[in-house]
Specification:
The protein has one helix at 2-35, and strands spanning 40-51, 55-59, 65-69, 75-78, 93-101, 107-117, 120-131, 136-141, 146-150, 156-158, 175-182, 188-195. It has 199 residues and is of the alpha/beta class. The chain folds into 2 domains: 2-117, Copper binding periplasmic protein CusF (OB fold (Dihydrolipoamide Acetyltransferase, E2P)), CATH 2.40.50.320; 120-195, OB fold (Dihydrolipoamide Acetyltransferase, E2P) (Beta Barrel). The two termini are 33 Å apart.
C-alpha cells in the first residue's frame, strides 16, 4: 500500500514539475504558430526507435513511426523535471512532449520528456505461437505491437472465472490479458495471464 502511495506522489510531483517546465515550450509553440499560419503545436508520445545527431524516431501508440527534428530550442527534461538532452535519449525510452508540425509535414520537437524505458506491461491481445520448450508465447496487443512473454512457476494463469490453468492451456488465437515485467536478463516475464474465453 505504501509503495502505491509513493508512486502516486512521485507521479503527481513529476506532473507539477513537467507542467511548470513546459510553460516556456508552450509559449514558444504559440509564438511559432502565430508567425506561421500553417504551423501547429501538439502533444504526442511514444517509444524511441532510433536516435540521430539532430533528430530521433519514435513509434506512437498506434504503431506509426515519426522522425522528429531537434533544434537548439528543443527543451529536454527527465520524468522528474530535471534538464536533459538528446544525448540522454536511448532506443527503448518512452517519451512525451510537444512538437511543431510544419506545412510540409516536418515535425520538430519543442519539449521532450524522457520517461525512461518501459519495465512493466498490462494489456489485452491475441496469443500467437507457443513454445513449450522455452515456456514462452507470442502475443499481439490490440495496438498491433508484438511481444514475446516467458512464464515460470510464479506466473499466475487463470480463466475468466478465475480458475487456475497451466501454460499448456494457452493456445494460438486465444484472447489474453497479460501483466508482465522486464527483468535483468532482458526478457519479458509474465506475472499473470488471463484467458478471456471460458475454458
Amino acid at each position: 500500500m505504501l509503495s502505491k502511495i509513493k508512486v502516486v506522489l512521485v507521479g503527481a510531483l513529476a506532473a507539477v514539475l513537467v507542467l511548470g517546465a513546459a510553460a516556456p515550450a508552450f509559449a514558444q509553440a504559440e509564438t511559432q504558430a502565430t508567425s506561421s499560419a500553417a504551423a501547429q503545436a501538439r502533444w504526442a508520445g511514444g517509444q524511441v526507435m532510433a536516435v540521430g545527431a539532430d533528430s530521433f524516431t519514435a513509434i506512437g501508440l498506434r504503431g506509426k513511426e515519426r522522425v522528429l527534428a531537434v533544434t537548439a530550442d528543443t527543451q529536454f527534461l527527465t520524468a522528474e523535471g530535471q534538464p536533459s538532452s538528446l544525448a540522454d535519449l536511448h532506443v527503448g525510452d518512452r517519451v512525451r512532449g510537444s512538437l511543431d508540425v510544419a506545412e510540409d509535414g516536418t515535425l520538430t520537437a519543442l519539449l521532450v520528456i524522457n520517461l525512461g524505458p518501459q519495465t512493466e506491461y498490462r494489456g489485452v491481445g491475441l496469443g500467437g505461437s507457443v513454445d513449450d520448450a522455452e515456456q514462452s508465447f507470442v502475443f499481439t496487443s490490440r495496438r498491433g505491437r508484438v511481444w514475446e512473454f516467458y512464464v515460470d512457476d510464479a506466473t499466475e494463469i487463470t480463466n475468466r472465472a478465475g480458475a487456475d490453468l497451466t501454460f499448456a492451456d494457452i493456445d494460438t488465437g486465444d484472447r489474453l490479458f497479460v501483466h508482465a515485467e522486464l527483468r535483468a536478463d532482458g526478457q519479458w516475464w509474465a506475472l499473470r495471464v488471463g484467458l478471456q474465453l471460458q475454458k
